[in-house]
Amino acid sequence: MKKTGGLFIETASKGAIPEDAAAKLKTMADGVIELSIVRSRGKSHRFLTVLKMERRRISSDSVPFQIDRTRGFVLRVSRLRLLKKRFSDLLAEHHILQSAESSENRPKPQPIKGPPARPR
Length: 120
Hints:
- The protein is of the alpha+beta class.
- The chain has a domain at 2-76.
- It is built from two helices and four strands.
- It has helices spanning 19-28, 79-105; strands spanning 31-40, 43-53, 63-68, 72-75.
- Strands 1-2-3-4 form a four-stranded antiparallel β-sheet, with no helix packed on it.
- The model has no long low-confidence stretch (mean pLDDT 79).
């Protein structure tokens, strides 16, 4: 199906198919998205989680969403939180590179031989 440029979408509810069958389907799929509902204090909160997306870096965070009659899925993503996460990832990556480079290329201090020279 991939060779012809086709798209296959499958939906399933937890418990509708055996867990081992669901696990096999997940391994065959390029992408797996989970929609969940958490009910608390008489309210329902919906979440979208990307479990797998081929050739993409994904976040493990669940994103709250609402279903709007006119706009459809409305994701509630904090842009500030996304920027903060990207920035911290960049800093962590840079720090790792910087510490690896500094330990390899850092000149070793010269050993001290005798007393320091006196200025004349």
